[in-house]
């Protein structure tokens, strides 16, 4: 019986040099939420799936494995369309983290709304790029976008 979901996610740590505590927390929350509830249905495969995300030559590689860890396939997506959303997302996150750390979190709500809007747009873009390869729900795409951002830290 098909079980279209991710049961384990791993990031290729070799491509990441250093992350702040805030980014580490974003990563942990994204992975936790992703594993709690997701819809991930690669065309031609039945889940559940273990995935490993990495960046290779400017492309996202999603290594698919079955429940036992046996390799199935690697899905690759060009990341050129994500360059601006990733850059903008980091800029907004930095503003958000600074506002949270300050004594007077002035404008925190506005920054958070902008961050959420950008995140939503990027999730829609990711769903569009995955069309015909992997069917995901919106929340799964949002969390995967967060992990794509984490992979971009150099």
Features:
4-stranded mixed beta sheet, two-stranded antiparallel ribbon, alpha+beta, 154 residues, elongated
Helix/strand-derived category reads alpha+beta
Largest sheet: 4 strands, mixed
Q: How many strands appear in the DSSP assignment?
A: 6
Helix coverage percent of residues? 40-55%
Number of helices: 4
Taken from the alpha-carbon principal axes, the silhouette is: elongated
Strand order of the largest sheet: 1-3-4-5
Would you list the SSEs in sequence order as H and E?
A: EHEEEEHHEH
Q: Overall pLDDT, averaged? A: 87
Question: What are the segments in which pLDDT stays under 50 over at least 5 consecutive residues?
Answer: none
Radius of gyration: 16 Å
Total discrete domains: 1
Notes on the protein architecture:
- It contains four helices and six strands, in the order βαββββααβα.
- The radius of gyration is 16 Å and the shape is elongated.
- The relative contact order is 0.21.
- The chain has 154 residues and is α+β, with helices and mostly antiparallel strands.
- The chain has one domain (6-151).
- A four-stranded mixed sheet has the order 1-3-4-5, covered by helices on one side.
- The mean pLDDT is 87.
- Helix 2 (83-101) packs antiparallel against helix 3.
């Amino acid at each position: 019986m098909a079980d279209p979901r991710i049961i384990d996610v791993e990031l290729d740590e070799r491509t990441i040099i250093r992350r702040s505590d805030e980014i580490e927390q974003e990563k942990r929350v994204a992975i936790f939420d992703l594993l709690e509830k997701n819809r991930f249905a690669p065309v031609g495969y039945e889940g559940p799936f273990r995935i490993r995300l990495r960046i290779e030559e400017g492309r996202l590689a999603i290594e698919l494995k079955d429940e036992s860890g046996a390799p199935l396939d690697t899905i690759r997506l060009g990341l050129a369309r994500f360059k601006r959303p990733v850059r903008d997302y980091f800029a907004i996150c930095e503003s958000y983290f600074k506002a949270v750390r300050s004594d007077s979190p002035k404008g925190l709500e506005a920054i958070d709304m902008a961050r959420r809007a950008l995140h939503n747009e990027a999730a829609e873009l990711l769903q569009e790029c995955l069309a015909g390869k992997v069917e995901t729900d919106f929340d799964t795409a949002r969390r995967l976008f967060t992990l794509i951002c984490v992979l971009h830290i150099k």
